[in-house]
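We close this part of the discussion by returning to an individual protein. In the encoding step, the backbone of a single protein was reduced to a row of integers, each denoting a local shape. The sequence in question and its structure tokens are set out directly beneath this paragraph.
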Amino acid sequence: MRAAMILLLAGLLAVGASPASCAADAAKLALVIGNARYPDNEFVLNDVANDTQDVTEELKRSGFVVDRQSNLTADAMRQVLDRFYARIERGTVALIFFDGFAIQSNRQTYLLPVDAQIWTEPDVARDGFSLDTILAEMNTRGAAIKIALIDASRRNPFERRFRRYSAGLAPAIAPSNSLVLYSAALGAAAAGGRTDHSLFVAELLREIRAPNISAEQALTNTKNGVVAATRREQVPWLSSSLTTDFSFAGPVTQPSDNKAGDPAPTKPEKPVCVTPQAEPAPSADDLARDPVVADLSRKIAANANDVISRYKRGQVYAIKRAYALAMQDFDVVIRKNPGDGEALNNRCWTRAATGDLQGALTDCNLALQADPGLSDALDSRGLVNLKLGRTAEAIKDYTDAIQRNPRSSSSLFGRGIATRRGGGDGATDIAQAKSMNPDIAKEFAGYGVTECSP
């Protein structure tokens, strides 16, 4: 009888267990992926290996069983995700941390394997892994709490091939009881650079190891820390549908009346005009070692009439600032097809960067005759007119480009500079462009256009 009463009491306690206690006792699984070595990128993402190692160690201290993977091809990434899904049981806390390149297409964010072959937008869905699909699969497998931490709001070489400038990441459509955190705002890119550690990850690690705060509060504090450290130039994006109490480290205490919000506003400083240093052009040895250039060169050597490979190689050369080589490839493509608007636009942009402004203007006009709605050609012609001192024409071109592509940091920055040179303010356009792409001033410096120049 006594034994029966004990069993009955245990059953009642189990039935009455709170959601918070269930989350605290649930299995915790994490998949940490760090993709640093993309052949298409001009340098290895050195911070990725360091950050994924630190995140792995911190999650293990928080009780997660962690599978850490590096530099995954598409096949390997698919296998790793399938293995992760298979380990999820009902009630599990499931977390994915991805550090590398991601890209948005059709309002979805796709995480990219290191062997992604992306030249046009349809290639994104073919080679990438939809974050929405990953979160939905975690939910289908029974995860009680779904967490996605994405440090991939970087400008990457893939977007530059078919959009000219990075458009950042798209909002995640996450199932209930989910937390999603991006390292930068929607549609924005974090500042690039060859660093050993990411500011975003440094803030994240400090907050998730803090005891007595909820996971949602930890991620909110991470966001606020990055905002404060960058003077609001980088604003992580956080989405939460969490209804269950969960903490990375220790129990959750009841929140006080003091709600955590954005950092206290600081007095704005007087803007200082600083001329950024443009990235140096690569050496011949650097280009010879580039695997993408080598692969395209092999295809061209095997078939001299392969204009697609020659156009792609021209794009890669132009992105890497090897302008003379880019011109040679675009010349061949245009000779074979004089009405190729995209090739004409790319040659216009290349000529504008090298100072051949009249030739650039001719190419841009021909590109717009071939395709009057080509926003990239309007953007390129805006740069040409800006460098020619035709500020009114530049403002019109950039405005027309923005109407077709409101997320173009290039067009916004160019219009801001043109407006300023025409005697207006331009500060709003310049600030918005920098928030979307912190490296935009450096890129324009490479074209010979700076905020400081008259």
Residues 1-24, 252-262, 264-271 have pLDDT under 50 and may be disordered. The two ends are 93 Å apart (CA to CA). The longest helix spans residues 46-61. The chain has two domains: 18-240, 284-400.
